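Exam review. A common question shows you a sequence with its structure tokens and asks you to describe the fold in words. Practice with the pair below. Do the first one on your own.
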Amino acid sequence: MTKTTKQHDFFISIPDFLKLIRAKNLLIVALTQYLARIFLIGPKEEWVAHLMDTRFMLLCFSTLLIAASGYIINDYYDVKIDTINKPNEVVIGRIMRRRVAMFTHTTFNFIGIAIGFYLSKTIGIINFFAAFWLWLYSNQLKREPFIGNISVAALTALSVLILSIYFETQNYLIYIYGVFAFFISVIREIIKDMEDVRGDLEFGCKTLPIVWGFRKTKSLVFFLLGAFTTITIILLTYIESAWLHGYFAVMILPLGWFSVLLYRADTKRKFSFLSNFCKWVMVSGVLAMTLI
């Protein structure tokens, strides 16, 4: 065993580790939770106190740990597929040893669940459920049509809805953002399946593009866009926020453009652009909280 290989047993560069745990995605989760705490739950005038709230810091930190462990275990099971779909982004097996990845995944889950139970029994159970479901998704569900997409979207929405559970508040703004996170995530996950169809097909995955074909899969995405718009309009009738109404009204234009691009998409590069487009829609929605 060479010296370089031994170093990979114990060490990994910070950029590679941040790539492994999807640091940018985790930053979006943290930003979402903090902005929701300040602007949706409030009162926003006490934003400094919210930022310094130690228990809320722990809630956010536990969410990030569970999410990071989910990304690690997902890459752990998908090394061969990722070698085909995105060879330049593979970390596990190339830079980090598989056993080190599994140890990190287990440690993150343990700490995240422990923090959850420290905060409350309910949060501990939710964190345990989320950690288990992320493992099940990575090990099995992501290779099945639609249920894997729904699983990721539901857990993404849960990262928002958990605030309503923790603070024991019935807040329609939280529900709107939960719906927003769910639909944008499930649409993005389906598009990522279309982007990664080559590697998934080679390793026997049964994702929607493989089972249904691209035309029917795109039709489902169009249906989800319509359902998202309808449910959002219904929920907005309970909210007296001109800024939020304005944001979702303005979003009709880029979503219409998105639909046209999706209809025409037929290459990995185009699907990759649409996937990133969904992420930017998510970020813009999160930042729109500051207008409430």
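Now try the second one, then compare your answer with the model answer below.
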Amino acid sequence: MSKFTVEETNLICIYHSGTREDLISELIQMKTHLEQDEKELWELTQSVVDKLSAMSDNEFNRMTAELVADFD
């Protein structure tokens, strides 16, 4: 989990939609709705997209397994 900052992790939790590729797609789509004064969020989102793009699906699945609460 150390690859991602707390802010990046929060963004992942908000937009996580199942797969790594779906999450990347969601984040890219979200960036198109940002205003010019939201540069910090744009940069944060791009950082997450870059990191997700560099990791494998297996790494992503292990990482997100730590993020999802197990209520069983």
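Model answer, second protein: The chain has one domain: 6-65. The two ends are 23 Å apart (CA to CA). Full marks require stating both points clearly.
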